[in-house]
Amino acid sequence: ILDEPSAGLSPKIVLEVFDRLKAINRAGVTTVLVEQNVRAALAIADRAVILVEGRIAHEGEAAALADDPIIAELYLGARKREAPA
Asked: Which CATH number fits the domain that encloses residue 21?
């Protein structure tokens, strides 16, 4: 169980932490990760659950959640593109 492993770390160290977490995942070790950096968490996870106010708001395969435009807008900082006038 990892609770906010990137909190307070420099970007370089965060990359190292997530590289190690990827290696743990590839080794087949089950982990539970609580992380405010949703983009980084989805990049290394097989499955994900997104909680809002303590309740499950979204769950599924991490890659599918990362590709979902609604998830991207709400949690990954992506914005809807306006159609050209």
From this structure: 3.40.50.300
Rounded CA-CA distance 26/47 in Å is 14
Higher pLDDT pick, 27 / 77: 27
Structural domain including 12 reads 2-75
Beta strand pairing call for 47-52 and 55-61: antiparallel
Residue 85 resides in a domain: no
Residue 50 · residue 57 · CB < 8 Å: yes
How many domains does one find in the chain?
1
Q: How far apart are CA 35 and CA 30, in angstroms?
A: 16
Task: Provide the pLDDT for residue 60.
Answer: 97
